[in-house]
Backbone:
């Protein structure tokens, strides 16, 4: 029997990761206010469902967009046949203008440097294919989006090496951490580092990178001669100060090693439409990425609709402002609610989630205890939230909790369930009914173990990841 | 600041392995620089290098007008907007998968049925082919491909996957049919070169031949892959372009008739780009009889999911069985008419094509017009056709054909009036070519000239048709002109 490829037989997508298990459990028992009030509430999916009404209103007011028409002319035929990987000019123009607007018009983008891809998933993978060879490495600050293990590594054969970020300074990227990661990759693991990838605003932290961090990164890549990818798919979700500062605002246009990934999945709440983009000042990267985009172009059908929508300046201005207001309000509800349950969140100003500190609820400061807590929350409390370990956080006790993908009623119910659970745990902790293991491990041995895990995982060439 | 350009990129980004420098694409550039338009640029290059089905789009357009609920943007359909816009499940919309499975069955005349659970989305057939390679083969492994074959296989199957293509030569002496001997030879050559062959990929109907595979050859093929325990990938993206008998025999039918066939080796690539004329919508499908492949492919489909807006629209349209029947029937009739018109016109000037019953193109035999029976001769002829006859046709060498003189010429991406202009140009060209050949023969008798360079003064061939067709896609189209 012919074997399949190594990629097919090995589970590099990490389907056994708690991030994905949680999603699966939700699918099997989803909360519904009427039909399944005891079901699992989905708080593990970073979706923005707060502003659909704004989009629907725009559609009602713009019937031509829906009827394959532009200026009364039918464009169906041209759309049906349009498969040029340079993308629909009107869409790219509208998209770069929208990207600029989100950045307070502090950056101007050239549509010729933009490559359209089927979602940020495809954009990230494509960029890695352009910048690194199999066996090379990219540095990523932890915690990071679990999907990166698939998107950046699976088919490219590239490795991820963590830049350790710690709660002691709010998980900020530091110079020593950058250097340590670089040394770990190049010296310890003998991997050639090709670049750094950051998410700004951060997933899962919900924070924008500070100006300091951006300067640090630019300086570091300059010294090492490596690339910087800034995944800015949450740029439109910054609802509090400090304002969003894009890497393109602070780096020189002539810097060919800085690249952006963008998408409309989070900012516009349209993950189904698969609209992603790569932006780069390097014409070779643009050229190669454009050719690669053949493997995942954006449907012309969708480009046309969004071109009309994003060209409507009045609409985009209002949308950006209103969307942020709603996210801010929702964020405040969650933070307040959790605070009343004695749970604090990392101070955040963006994103569709909170980075929640439940270290005090762990039976021990270990990942086993974190998993135990996660299982309790998933199966007993019936909330799907993502444990920090799935985001490669190096400290146990942090969870990502999404808040923009449900109604306010559902959110309140979720908070209520959390409050009840915390109250129960507090009562029981006193009486020691649940047999948690109590032991302390030093911070040092935790770091060493984590580094060990990383080294263990860098065995892609020998076989499968665990 | 570091100002060095293009340094430190991957090998993929800096090499030419994407294959887009091939002549197949060069002809397109000639077209892009000087595109034909029936009123605005009647002397321009006529695009006959793009395999598109433009003949039946108005049927779809009419359907859209009658079915506003299929769009999530119309008042009738906007109630679905939120759910659809939010839907990114890589399983795809269930009713979309159901509709595609039904369509595939219909296209095969009900002779096979398809399980919606095995349908996996991909970014067009381009994405689907690459995805399957990632699932079935590792870097350095080989896949057998009968030639002549689709030029972009070099990019789709090889570029990022690192898989090697081993061509299986097919010859004009038996109408380019695949034989057991040629398969065995190719397999053996690969083995000697230390290439681990993981599978065979065929296109049925064939691009560029326009022929469908007969049962006997198909069974031979399935036996071959079973014996060697290698995969069989059937690219069936032209399955609904079969416009006359023999009927399409799909791999899905063949395996029902064969007892000893390991179904875990069988996979299909499908798309709506050719059958429904919707390349812009990027609908690619991977269908595998192997559960593990389905599972892996589904995860990989995250890199090229179909827009949910498009899935929703197509689910509605393809579920309208009456419409689908009407479309398939009419499309086949139009293709037959267009094909016949073109081949008859060619026959009148003594140009033969490989006999075909499918596809959006013909495989034209221009060997008699070659000054020398070499690939250089083919290139010379091709350059003349592009620059003087002003037709973008695709030379056989770009399809890895092993015999010079064959060209693929597309006929379904234009209206009849444009086709008549193309035929008139060809007619003039052939007459002049024959005169030239006669002169050369005479001159060769009287002198020792080794070779002549072709010299045609650039002239346009007579066009007596005044045409006005708004239906050609060209850079003048409102889409490409539009700026905001």
Residues:
């Amino acid at each position: 029997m012919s074997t399949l490829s190594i990629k097919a037989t090995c589970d590099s997508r990490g389907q056994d990761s708690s991030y994905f298990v949680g999603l699966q459990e939700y699918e099997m028992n989803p909360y519904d206010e009427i039909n399944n009030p005891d079901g699992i509430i989905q708080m593990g999916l970073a979706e923005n469902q707060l502003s659909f009404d704004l989009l629907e209103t725009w559609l009602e007011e713009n019937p031509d967009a829906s009827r394959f028409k532009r200026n009364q002319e039918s464009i169906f035929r041209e759309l049906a046949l349009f498969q040029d990987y340079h993308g629909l000019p009107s869409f790219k123009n509208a998209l770069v203008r929208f990207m600029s607007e989100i950045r307070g018009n502090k950056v101007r983008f050239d549509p010729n440097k933009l490559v359209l891809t089927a979602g940020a998933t495809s954009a990230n993978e494509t960029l890695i294919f352009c910048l690194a060879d199999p066996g090379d490495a990219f540095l990523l600050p932890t915690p990071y989006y679990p999907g990166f293990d698939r998107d950046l590594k699976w088919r490219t054969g590239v490795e991820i090496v963590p830049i350790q970020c710690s709660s002691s300074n709010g998980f900020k990227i530091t110079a020593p951490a950058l250097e340590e990661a670089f040394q770990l990759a190049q010296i310890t693991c003998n991997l050639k580092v090709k670049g750094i990838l950051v998410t700004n605003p951060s997933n899962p932290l919900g924070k924008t990178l500070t100006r300091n961090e951006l300067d640090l990164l630019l300086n570091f890549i300059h010294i090492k001669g490596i690339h910087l990818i800034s995944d800015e798919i949450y740029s439109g979700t910054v609802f509090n100060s400090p304002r969003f500062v894009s890497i393109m605002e602070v780096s020189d246009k002539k810097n060919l090693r800085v690249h952006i990934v963008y998408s409309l999945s989070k900012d516009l709440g349209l993950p189904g439409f698969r609209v992603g983009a790569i932006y780069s000042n390097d014409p070779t990267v643009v050229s190669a990425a454009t050719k690669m985009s053949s493997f995942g172009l954006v449907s012309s059908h969708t480009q046309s609709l969004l071109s009309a929508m994003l060209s409507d300046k009045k609409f985009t201005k209002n949308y950006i402002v209103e969307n942020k207001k709603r996210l801010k309000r929702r964020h405040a509800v969650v933070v307040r609610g959790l605070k009343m349950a004695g749970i604090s969140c990392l101070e955040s100003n963006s994103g569709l989630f909170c980075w929640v500190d439940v270290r005090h609820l762990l039976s021990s400061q270990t990942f086993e205890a974190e998993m135990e807590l996660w299982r309790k929350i998933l199966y007993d409390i019936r909330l799907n939230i993502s444990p920090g370990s799935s985001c490669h956080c190096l400290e146990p006790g942090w969870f990502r909790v999404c808040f923009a993908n449900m109604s306010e009623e559902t959110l309140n119910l979720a908070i209520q369930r959390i409050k009840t659970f915390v109250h129960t745990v507090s009562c029981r902790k006193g009486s020691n009914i649940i047999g948690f293991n109590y032991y302390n491990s030093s911070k040092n041995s935790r770091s060493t173990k984590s580094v060990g895990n990383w080294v263990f995982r860098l065995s892609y060439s020998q076989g499968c990841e665990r | 600041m570091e100002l060095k350009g293009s340094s430190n990129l991957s090998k993929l980004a800096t090499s030419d392995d994407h294959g887009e420098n091939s002549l197949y694409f060069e002809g397109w550039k000639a077209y892009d620089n000087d595109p034909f338009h029936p009123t605005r640029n009647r002397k321009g290059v006529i695009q006959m290098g793009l395999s598109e089905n433009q003949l039946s789009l108005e049927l779809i357009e009419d359907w859209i007008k009658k079915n506003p609920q299929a769009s999530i943007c119309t008042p009738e359909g906007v109630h679905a907007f939120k759910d659809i816009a939010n839907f990114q499940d890589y399983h795809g919309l269930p009713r979309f998968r159901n509709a595609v499975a039904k369509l595939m069955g219909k296209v095969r005349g009900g002779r096979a049925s398809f399980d919606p659970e095995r349908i996996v989305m991909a970014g067009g057939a381009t994405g689907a082919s690459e995805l399957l390679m990632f699932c079935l083969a590792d870097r350095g492994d080989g896949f057998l491909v009968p030639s002549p074959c689709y030029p972009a296989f070099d990019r789709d199957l090889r570029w990022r996957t690192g898989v090697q293509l081993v061509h299986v030569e097919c010859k004009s002496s038996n109408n380019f049919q695949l034989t057991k001997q040629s398969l065995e030879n190719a397999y053996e050559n690969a083995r000697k070169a230390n290439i681990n062959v993981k599978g065979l990929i065929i296109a049925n109907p064939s691009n560029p031949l326009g022929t469908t595979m007969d049962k006997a050859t198909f069974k031979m093929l399935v036996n071959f892959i079973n014996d060697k325990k290698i995969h069989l990938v059937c690219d069936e993206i032209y399955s609904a372009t079969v416009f006359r008998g023999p009927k399409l025999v799909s791999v899905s039918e063949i395996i029902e008739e064969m007892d000893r066939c390991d179904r875990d080796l069988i996979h299909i690539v499908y798309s709506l780009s050719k059958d429904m004329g919707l390349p812009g919508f990027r609908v690619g499908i991977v269908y595998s009889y192997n559960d593990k492949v389905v599972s892996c492919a589904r995860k990989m489909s995250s890199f090229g999911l179909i827009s949910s807006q498009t899935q929703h629209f197509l689910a509605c349209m393809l579920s309208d069985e009456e419409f689908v029947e009407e479309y398939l029937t009419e499309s086949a009739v139009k293709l037959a008419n267009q094909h016949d018109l073109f081949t008859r016109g060619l026959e009148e000037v003594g140009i033969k094509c490989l006999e075909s019953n499918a596809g959006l193109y013909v495989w034209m035999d221009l060997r008699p017009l070659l000054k020398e029976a070499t690939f250089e001769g083919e290139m010379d002829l091709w350059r003349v056709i592009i620059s003087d006859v002003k037709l973008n046709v695709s030379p056989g060498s770009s399809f890895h054909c092993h015999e010079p003189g064959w060209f693929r010429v597309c006929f379904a991406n234009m209206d009849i009036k444009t086709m008549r202009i193309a035929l008139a140009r060809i007619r003039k060209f052939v007459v002049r070519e024959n005169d030239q050949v006669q002169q050369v023969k005479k001159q060769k008798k009287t002198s020792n000239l080794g070779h002549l360079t072709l010299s045609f003064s650039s002239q346009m061939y007579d066009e007596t048709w005044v045409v006005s067709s708004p239906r050609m896609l060209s850079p003048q189209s409102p889409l490409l002109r539009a700026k905001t």
User: Anything to note?
Assistant: The longest helix of chain B spans residues 416-446. Residues 1-6, 449-484 of chain B have pLDDT under 50 and may be disordered. The radius of gyration of chain B is 23 Å. DSSP finds 16 helices and 13 strands in chain B.
